[in-house]
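STRUCTURE:
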């Protein structure tokens, strides 16, 4: 009878360990989520270049973030494609490529 008692105790001990493991995993996920939210709040609408506030402006129908301190400009997702579509099929993309290409 003592072996049955030991097997039963082991079963409940394993169940408790698994329950604690799931709880720890859940708490770690919540902590990571809260840390990501806090980081986002600390940097929301801040210039990644100088840290000053960004202002949303409309440029050729696309919303862009502009820093009036360092004059940096950031596009939202899809903003470059929207601007490129307005300038013709390859005009804007060609200009961007030319900025990074080397001239001999």
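SEQUENCE:
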């Amino acid at each position: 009878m003592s072996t049955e008692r030991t097997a039963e105790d082991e079963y409940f001990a394993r169940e408790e360990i698994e329950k604690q493991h799931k709880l720890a995993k859940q708490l770690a996920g919540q902590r990571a989520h809260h840390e990501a939210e806090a980081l986002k709040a600390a940097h929301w609408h801040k210039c990644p270049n100088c840290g000053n506030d960004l202002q949303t402006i409309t440029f050729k129908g696309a919303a862009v973030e502009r820093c009036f301190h360092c004059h940096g400009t950031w596009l939202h997702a899809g903003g470059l494609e929207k601007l490129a579509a307005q300038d013709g099929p390859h005009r804007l993309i060609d200009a961007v490529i030319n900025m990074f290409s080397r001239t001999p």
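REMARK: The beta strands are 55-59, 62-66, 73-75.
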